[in-house]
Amino acid sequence: MKLSFLSILIIPILFILSDVSSLILATMTKYGLHILAIIVSVTSLCFLKMAWFDPWRIRKKLESQGIRGPKPRFLYGNVGEMHRIQANSDSNKSDEDGEFVAHDYTSTLFPYFEQWRKEYGPIYTYSTVNKQHLYVTHPEVVKEMNNHSLSSHLGKPSYITKRLAPMLGNGILRSNGHLWARQRKIVAPQFFMHRVKGMVGLMVESVESLISKWEGYIESQGGNMAEIEVEEDLRSVSADVISKACFGSSFLKGKRVFTKLRTLQKLMSNQNFLFGSHSLGIFLTGQQKKIEQLEKEIESLIWDAVKERDGECFGGNKDLMQMILEGAMNNVSDDNVGKVSNYKKFIVDNCKNIYFAGHESTAVAASWCLMLLALHPQWQSRIREEVDDVCHANGEGLCADSLHKLKTTAMVIHEVLRLYPPAAFVSREALQETKIGHIVVPKGVCLWTLIPTLHRDPDIWGADANEFNPQRFANGISNVYIPFGLGPRLCLGKSFALVQLKIIVFLIVSKFTFTLSPKYRHSPAFRMIVEPGHDVRLCIRRR
To answer: Contact 90/107 with Cβ under 8 angstroms?
Structure first.
């Protein structure tokens, strides 16, 4: 077979290219393996530093100060032990959920914290994955945390707030540092007491609508007594108040926001926020899609209400939405709202924070109030005496000027919030190395204070610490009492919540007597906040 001249030239070239490619491949193989080995080594070292060395170093700093705790396991910390203790507690739980055990639910909901507290004392350290935590219920150290004025030193734990983003966005409850300070400057004045007093009328109006509804229940059930489930009705009252305060004439949109927020909260409560980043945020695909969809729907509803303000003059009686809009326009700098999307996010995120905190916690606290008053009818009688005195003194119903006269009502509410604070924890992260009392807290450590445990400390509250006794607040608050948090990040809505609770309790007790239904099952549950595991069922009669 004859070869063409072109073939004679190509064949040697192919042989040459083949040799060159083999040489290049051999070289890449040789040095590529070295490069790959270097990458794997560096990655492994970084992983070991993050997962083992950094937590070990921080733990040693705490141990050098006499702070002990359960021994962690590599990669998991104490997560496995927490799950085991919780499982043992659940398996040993009595079938009689309705049985009251001195109102102390901490050993059921948080058995690992209680077991370690008994073993290591009121200050101890534990680990979850690569996070080191410091548990603190020592009253003097908690007081120091309360007096710690530098918000730049202590912030919200980032690994938790990241998981709360669908619910709270980057609003005031999640943010830290400069952004948090700026948001507080805008939002806080809207909840000062003189502004809250301006909302008393709509609060009274909402509760009176509830009373009419319950009177209708009595008529429909024979005219003497009615058995009702109070929790959803109280949520409706709370939603009505905050919706009108935020949206004015658009309050119906606000009520739709609350319904969707409640659904979102139930989905997200499947996460266990206490077991560390390894077990947070792991959803089934379908569940994650539902969360994302709800988040979009909530943001759309809020922004629709905001857009209705276009062209409105901010004058006269401003509602909360108008004041937030003004605050955002006047105080948020260009670097934060340089784009419309960022401006929109600022408004929407803070509205979500106000809706959730102002609605959910207040409604749950009101449910606990009625549950405890149903158990202790003598305190219903004492509030009714106050009702008669206050209404007789001013010759009319409850108004803003008579709030300070509700001494007995306030005592009851404080005692309820001592035993059943909706927020179970104060959680902080050391944003830099910080000294709290005698403890030097390394940067990155998360601090936890279990509020109901602190509120039940017999050394603080006496031998009856687990009993309902509002009389302990007859002379005001003098002990370590933190149902609304502590320090610079004290709940902005404290005055709003207390006034609303006063009005709810005062007006309901003025119209009805009530006892717990035999069907009520006492089973507090932790679903981001501590709420009744089963609805609060009451038997109510007209006064």
So the answer is: no
Sign of CA dihedral 151, 157, 158, 163: negative
| Number of residues written out for the chain | 543
C-alpha span between 460 and 456 (Å, rounded): 8
196 contacts: CB under 8 Å, gap ≥ 6: 495, 496, 499
Q: What one-character DSSP code corresponds to residue 51? A: I
Helix (H) or strand (E) holding 228: strand 225-229
Work out the number of other CB atoms within 10 angstroms of the CB of residue 208. 16
470 three-class SS? helix
Measured CA to CA in angstroms, residue 95 lies from 25, 92, 99, 532 at distances of 70, 9, 9, 17
pLDDT digits (tens, 9 = 90+) for 475-501: 988 788 999 988 778 888 899 999 999
pLDDT tens sequence across 302-354: 888 777 765 554 455 566 777 777 766 765 554 444 455 577 787 888 888 88
CA–CA gap between residue 284 and residue 250 (Å, rounded) = 35
How do residues 357-409 score in pLDDT, each as one tens digit?
778 889 999 999 999 999 999 999 999 999 888 876 666 678 888 888 999 99
**Using CA atoms in the order 184, 185, 187, 191, what is the torsion angle rounded to 10 degrees?**
100
Q: Is 521 exposed, middle or buried (0-12, 13-18, 19+ CB in 10 A)?
A: middle
Burial call 324-349: b when 16+ CB within 10 Å, e when fewer: bbebbeeebeeebbeeeeebbbbbbb
- Please give the structure tokens belonging to residue 393: 């003194």
User: Which pLDDT belongs to residue 184?
Assistant: 85
Distances 500 to 238, 362, 400, 472, 496 between C-alpha atoms, Å:
8, 8, 11, 22, 6
Residue type, 469: N
pLDDT computed for residue 512 by the predictor: 96
Whether the pLDDT of residue 33 is over 50: the answer is: yes
Residues 6 or more apart from 377 whose CB is under 8 A from it? Answer: 513, 515
Give the residue from 511, 514, 259, 489 showing the smallest Cα distance to 363: 259
Continuous segment of H or E residues that includes residue 208: helix 200-220
Structure tokens at 294: 């709800």
CA 483 to chain CA centroid, nearest Å: 12
Domains (ranges, CATH) in the chain? Answer: 69-542 (1.10.630.10)
Concatenated DSSP letters for 151-180? Answer: TTTEE--HHHHTTTHHHHTTSTTT--HHHH
- Name the maximum alpha-carbon separation found in the chain: 125
The Cα 164–Cα 159 span in angstroms is 9
Residue range 286-311: mean pLDDT, rounded: 80
Distance CA 542, CA 367 (A): 19
* Position 272 confidence tier, pLDDT thresholds 50, 70, 90: low
Bigger pLDDT: 153 vs 115 = 115
